[in-house]
Specification:
Elements: H1 2-20, E1 31-33, E2 39-41, H2 43-55, E3 77-79, E4 85-91, E5 94-96, E6 99-102, E7 107-114, E8 123-126, E9 131-134, E10 140-146, E11 153-157, E12 163-168
Parallel strand pairs: 3-6, 4-7, 6-12
Antiparallel strand pairs: 1-2, 4-5, 7-10, 8-9, 8-11, 11-12
């Protein structure tokens, strides 16, 4: 009986996922149902998965790409002068820009404005400064920071999924 319920749930979920939920921009092969009622990847997808496992360190798309993750291809960068202000938009894609460059040991103001309820940008954390701030929707929250002489000053959302940094200009 439990197996039947599980199969009915799986089939219902598969129909929902294929019919009602919009597809991502990813071009993945469809999942095929087998005679046992289990979903299995198509032959092409299974082969691609095996190739990915063989590659070992092959990069898989990050669900939070654009959120300041390491290895990000197109990180948004802003340059600010000493005493300047960096306007940072917080949306469902993370921080924009995600990297602020300024002269070493200078003071700059980070001005965060959250523009959507989507995502996890409701809270800002700067762990090295013991800062935790709520980011109200469509309100700018300003924080003055000192640019490190070397390395970076990181900031993140409360869940540590969206990430950004302040780095010294070279």
């Amino acid at each position: 009986m439990t197996r039947l319920r599980s199969s009915v749930f799986t089939a219902s979920f598969a129909i929902f996922a294929l019919v009602l939920a919009p597809a991502c921009d990813k071009k993945e092969e469809p999942v095929e149902a087998t005679a046992e009622g289990k979903d299995e990847p198509s032959d092409k997808q299974a082969e691609a998965d095996r190739e990915g496992e063989k590659a070992g360190e092959a990069e898989k798309p990050d669900a939070h790409a654009g959120h300041g993750a390491a290895g990000e291809a197109k990180a948004e960068v802003a340059s600010v002068e000493a005493g300047g202000k960096a306007e940072i938009k917080v949306d469902a894609g993370g921080y924009h820009p995600a990297e602020i460059q300024a002269p070493p040991k200078s003071k700059v103001t980070l001005a965060f404005t959250r523009t959507t309820e989507a995502g996890c940008g409701q809270e800002l954390v700067i762990a090295s400064m013991d800062v935790k701030k709520d980011l109200p929707l469509n309100e700018t929250v300003e924080i003055e920071v000192e640019v490190p002489e070397s390395g970076e000053l990181g900031f993140a959302c409360g869940m540590n999924m969206y990430k950004g940094k302040v780095v010294p200009k070279a």
